[in-house]
Amino acid sequence: MVTVEDFKYVLTLWNGHKIPGLIERDIKVDLESNKIIAIAGSRRSGKTYVMFQCMNDLLKKGVKKDNILYINFENERLVGITAINLDDLLIAHRELFNSDGIMYVFLDEIQIVENWDKWVRKIYDTGKYRVIVTGSSSELLSSEIATSLAGRNLTYIVYPFSFKEYVDAQGLKINKLQKYSFEKGVILKAMNDFLEFGSFPEIAMTSSISRKLEILSSYFDAIFFKDIVRRYGIRDVGDLNIFLKILSSSYASYFSSVKLFNYFKSTGRKISRVTLLNFLDYSRSVFLVSLLEKYEKSVRKRISMQSKTYIIDTGISRLFSDIDKGRALENAVFIELSRRKESIESINYFKIKSGKEVDFIVGGKNGEIIQVSYEVSLLSTRSRETSALVEAAKGLGLKSGKIITYDYEGEELIDGILIHYIPFWAWALYDTKQK
């Protein structure tokens, strides 16, 4: 059982550490909002450092450190903790520190604590606490939690580094004029590394390829054992292991439970389609993958159509297969679009009656259509990509479309539709539609 003394030990350790210097993340948390702040995202994406960024902002505004409480529930002294123990956390803090006024309570990896939401709601309702929580599970986003918190929560999703954050972390100074200079090679090398090894913060700060792969392997193991096996009580981990490796290698493509079922059957492994779909839900719940639905006006049709899967970070895939640069680029675009997405916006793929497909339609019928093509120098490739965009634009009543490329830039007017070709790095760093 976790005691007051356990909390005192953990809080004393925290108080003895200086809040570390940080690479500024693009995410801006509204600490003045009278809401419970939930910071969610995949393991090792930087949620804790976003918390630290919030703490530094508070200190700059004159909030005393004694009024900032931080605790990470993955500490070994807190094993077995439940919501019943959490009142002791506040008792321990009052005994150790001289706080007055509003308390800012930062609770890291809160999903470990059973019934945490009820306790958080209780202290929030007193009006004396501003509560900020993080978690590696979509429990922080679920309808059950939203119902329990009764509209009191404001949720932010933390992704691995954006390309902008990635180049900043490496100390690279990139400007628009570099595309005309010999320094362009620096940009392309950074982009190649970004696509091949991903952009988890620790990876971005590591130069050794073997070390990158070791770190990524440890992340996968943590997601596998801690976030999925332990949380969902899975006994036959062999099937799950195979499933996750296939899923991680098949990003930016359609998900088919039928094909997976037939594959498992061909290898002599007995597994149901229901179990495979459950595995997919578990992978989504821990932010390993996201699903992209087809654009349809009817919700029923949209749900019934086949979805595409995208992985949170292509570095995970690098553990199991070589990187397909075309799919990696598409995946990077999807993650960046997800990062930028406003709450009212939608992201879908678009299927035209002719059978052609546009990779992304953002914001519905009157929004933006985006194609991703790693290489468009070949006339046949460019024609295939532009014909889908032109047909889609005409059908939707749009005047333009966008093709995000590896390194090609330009514009082209086709049948009255303006096609913009934009290199990924330029789009990611300087596109005018910002988050």
Automatic annotation (TrEMBL):
Protein name, as recorded: AAA ATPase
Pfam families cross-referenced by the UniProt entry: AAA_14, DUF4143
Lineage, broadest ranks: Archaea, Methanobacteriati, Thermoplasmatota, Thermoplasmata, Thermoplasmatales
Source species of the chain: Cuniculiplasma divulgatum
Domain named DUF4143: residues: 226-371
Domain AAA: 34-166
